[in-house]
Write a structure and sequence with these properties.
CATH architecture of the largest domain: Orthogonal Bundle
Structural class: alpha/beta
CATH topology of the largest domain: Tex N-terminal region-like
Strand order of the largest sheet: 6-5-4-7-8
Number of helices: 29
Number of domains: 5
CATH superfamily of the largest domain: Tex N-terminal region-like
CATH class of the largest domain: Mainly Alpha
Radius of gyration: 33 Å
Shape: globular
Length: 718
């Protein structure tokens, strides 16, 4: 363990070195973030998942820096360029940018104007001019003329010398750091319409002639302009005021006002315009993109967490419907555990006769299978199908619930769906997914690539490695936070459990299929390749209901079973009695159980689990209904107040489903009566809201909404 990393991370994250050291040690031993956060609180000082992930990610960055540092030192040494002074400079670099600045003059490079000038023997002339002493510049240049080497006259000699000096300026680490700071302090992001793209670039019209300080450009605008440039619709530049940049460089390199200083000044100007400026512009653009990616990824991750932790309907017999107009509605009957029973196709929206047949089919299925809930996808024909169902005179005990179809088509065509239902029509698989999503959103959504779910902003433009990593963290956090019933969970759900992964998840499923359900957590050790370390990491997050050991249904880790049994023995009762009798639990003196390895944080967690073993942290399910009179965008009128569901939160506002097959936008300026900096402060995905219709553009399928309670403000489409 590199101790310098520990101190650095602790300082940056404002944590104790003991906390960071313990966390890094656990990570390097193979412990997962959920396991550390839940079961090693005494070791880390009760750090939460966010802090542990920050330590893990910063540790990875420092290791990457060290790896690059080693590669650079090896390269310098192999070429006999490494001096003690240079080695110290390399090893003292704090960032990759600073490290690359130090290495830049020594990096093997392609032929440049400067290297050609050096080959022509002009470096001595450049060195003399660089000193900026009083001299006869023309005479010195004449001495460097060598027609055999391509230097025909003093003018060419001076040009070559300036090329060499320009490269020195560009490769100077102090100059790069100073101008890099100017890019971020005063750089302006400008966007222009690409020539001849007027009609094609209509969606980018806000950026046809746009300029704003880089420091103030929000992530969504940066990503929008970069996408426009990638599609050749826009031309982008990111530069600070040229005069200020040149003034700063002149102050660094031009020391006098004589003839040789004039040559240095010309080299500085050339360097900035031809080398340093373009280089740092590329760097600044990449960094702006990286920062925008971070924000967009965080927005996506926050939305995904809300979506995954949506309230589950629970175990109820269900009829799921994937709606359609001409192609009909696909029906799938599921039992209370989500097991597929049978399917049917109805055409309720194609005339009276077919509507009557559809009604008979639905009523028959509901009666035969004792249906408790009907789940209707919110895609094309969804609201019309809902209206049809509500007119059937169904039992008052049957709920009709609209369900988001986002991602259902992705799942229905996926290898996981084909494996589970190899002979089933793809549209019926979609209906099954819709029904299961209502029963348990988390269990169903983990089967889909999070990037296909449809929340977030510019998810296809951001760094896909970063996005995948952050979204995976969210899924892992949600799955382990809720817990997984090992005897019914899909392989996909099991794969996100701490310490498992796809291979062990499949091994568990195969063992379960061959031997029946697990009777206890200890039985997991019988699974091939699931060893003690994986068991330690996973066991606390796996649930076994109605098993041999009552604690197996809780989040109490098996390593604490003896402790709980000791508590029960002291109270003269069984563990089961302790879990069902609050009076018995209230007599337990937690302080008496504190030891070198178990502290009050873990003891309090254990007591909370004994009180509500395996408690689902998600909120109770409550049905939601759209306005019955509004089913199509043409039904909307300015000023209408409507119930809606937040489907997506972005940096510029929130999208809300009001039941017309087209989400409306509540711009950030319309989210509240007060100023809002972050939409996530006001709304979350799946939140129920009441909105006012501000504007409806039927041709462009755009709906502007407001959540303000005061007078209606002007809608913004920024």
């Amino acid at each position: 363990m590199n101790q310098s990393y520990i101190a650095k991370i602790a300082g940056e994250l404002h944590l104790l070195t003991t906390q960071v050291r313990a966390t890094v040690s656990l990570i390097e031993e193979g412990a997962t973030v959920p396991f550390i956060a839940r079961y090693r609180k005494e070791v880390t000082g009760s750090l939460d998942e966010v802090a542990i992930e920050s330590i893990r990610d910063r540790l990875a960055q420092l290791k990457e820096l060290a790896s690059r540092m080693d590669a650079i030192l090896a390269s310098l040494e192999a070429r006999d360029l490494l001096t003690e002074e240079l080695k110290d400079r390399v090893q003292s670099a704090e960032t990759l940018a600073a490290l690359e600045d130090i290495y830049l003059p020594y990096r093997p490079k392609r032929r440049t104007r400067a290297t050609i000038a050096k080959e022509q023997g002009l470096e001595p002339l450049a060195s003399i001019l660089w000193q900026q002493e009083d001299m006869d510049v023309a005479a010195e240049a004449a001495l460097a003329v060598d027609p055999e080497k391509g230097v025909a006259d003093p003018g060419e000699a001076l040009q070559g010398a300036r090329d060499i000096m320009a490269e020195w300026v560009s490769e100077d680490s102090t100059a790069r750091a100073q101008i890099r700071g100017l890019f971020w302090a005063k750089g302006a992001l400008t966007s222009k319409l690409s020539q001849g793209k007027e009609s094609e670039a209509a969606k980018y019209r806000d950026y046809f002639d746009w300029e704003e300080p880089l420091s103030q450009a929000p992530s969504h605008r940066v990503l929008a302009m970069l996408r426009g440039e990638k599609e050749s619709m826009l031309t982008l530049h990111l530069l600070p005021p040229e005069e200020e940049a040149l003034t700063e460089l002149e102050a660094l390199f031009v020391k006098h006002s004589n003839d040789s200083s004039q040559q240095v000044s010309l080299a500085v100007q050339d360097s900035y315009k031809r080398l340093l400026g373009p280089s740092l512009e590329t760097e600044a653009r990449n960094e702006a993109k990286a920062r925008a990616d971070e924000v967009a990824t965080r927005v996506f991750a926050d939305n995904l967490r809300q979506l995954l932790l949506a309230s589950p309907l629970g175990q109820k017999s269900l009829l799921a419907i994937d709606p359609g107009l001409r192609t009909g509605c696909k029906l799938a009957v599921l039992d209370s555990l989500g097991k597929f029973i049978e399917s049917a196709t109805i055409f309720p929206l194609l005339g009276e006769r077919q509507s009557a047949e559809a009604a008979q089919t639905v009523l028959s299925l509901c009666q035969r299978h004792d249906t408790q809930v009907i789940a209707v996808g919110n895609g094309t024909g969804g609201r019309e199908t809902e209206t049809f169902l509500r007119g059937l005179g169904l039992s008052s005990g049957i709920q009709i619930v609209m369900v988001s179809e986002s991602g259902a088509s992705i799942y229905s065509a996926s290898p996981a769906a084909r494996e589970e239902f190899p002979d089933m029509d793809i549209t019926v698989r979609g209906a099954v997914s819709i029904g299961r999503r209502l029963m348990d959103p988390l269990a169903e959504l983990v089967k889909i690539d999070p990037r296909s779910i449809g929340v977030g902003q510019y998810q296809h433009d951001v760094d896909q490695g970063l996005l995948q990593s952050k979204l995976n963290d969210v899924v892992v956090s949600c799955v382990n936070g809720v817990g997984v019933e090992v005897n019914t969970a899909s392989r996909q759900l099991l794969s996100y459990v701490s310490g498992l992964g796809p291979s062990l998840a499949k091994a568990i499923q195969d063992y379960r299929d061959a031997n029946g359900g697990f009777k206890s957590r200890r039985d997991l050790l019988k699974v091939p390749r699931l060893g003690p370390k994986a068991f330690e990491q996973a066991a606390g997050f796996l649930r076994i209901s109605d098993g041999d050991q009552p604690l197996d249904a809780s989040a109490v880790h098996p390593e604490s079973y003896k402790l709980v049994q000791s508590m029960a023995k002291t109270q003269g009762c069984s563990v089961n009695d302790l879990m069902t009798d609050e009076a018995l639990r209230s007599r337990i003196d937690l302080d008496s159980y504190v030891s070198d390895t178990v502290g009050l944080p873990t003891l309090r967690d254990i007591m909370a689990e004994l009180a509500r073993p395996g408690r689902d942290p998600r909120q109770e399910f409550e049905p939601f209904a759209f306005d019955e009179g509004v089913q199509n965008i043409r039904d909307l009128e300015t000023g209408m107040r409507l119930p809606g569901l937040v489907t997506n939160v972005t940096a510029f506002g929130a999208f809300v489903d009001v039941g017309v097959h087209q989400d409306g936008l509540v711009h950030i300026s319309q989210l509240a009566d007060r100023f809002v900096r972050d939409p996530g402060e006001i709304v979350k995905v799946n939140q129920r809201v009441t909105v006012t219709v501000l504007e409806v553009d039927i041709d462009r399928k755009r709906i502007s909404l407001s959540m303000k309670t005061g007078p209606k403000a002007q809608a913004s489409n920024d």
